Amino acid sequence: MKSMKIRYRKCPFVSKGLKQLMSLRNKRREIARRPGLLLEDWQRHRASRDDVKTKLREAERQYLQKEIYNNKNRDSMWKAIRNRILRKETRQTIYT
Questions:
Q1: In the list 41, 45, 46, 66, which could disulfide-bond 28, CB 3.0-4.6 Å?
Q2: What is d(CA 79, CA 76) in angstroms, rounded to the nearest whole number?
Q3: Shortest CA distance to 44 belongs to which of 56, 35, 33, 58?
Q4: What mean pLDDT, rounded, does the chain reach?
Q5: pLDDT digits (tens, 9 = 90+) for 5-48
Q6: What is the Cα–Cα distance from 22 to 51, expressed in whole angstroms?
Q7: What DSSP designation does 93 have?
Q8: How crowded is the C-beta side of 25, counted as CA atoms within 13 Å?
Q9: Is the dihedral angle over the CA atoms 79, 83, 89, 95 positive or is it negative?
């Protein structure tokens, strides 16, 4: 048996309000997927999905701007920028 640590991208910019919006989006998706669905259910889900997506992007953008502004040191500034850039994983995760 081999155990491995699964790494994930840290999201310090996600607030309680955003988590509540994400929860509402997930509930609306569950409702929309039920049999006998209505078009309005899917429209509500899409609207909440788009709202969450835009607010997450805006929160991440503001967080990165604040990090860059607070880190006047060149090395610290680039460290903050590199942490936000998506990287390709070099190793594959193995589940046992």
A1: 45
A2: 5
A3: 33
A4: 82
A5: 776 667 888 899 999 999 999 999 998 888 877 888 889 999 99
A6: 9
A7: -
A8: 15
A9: positive
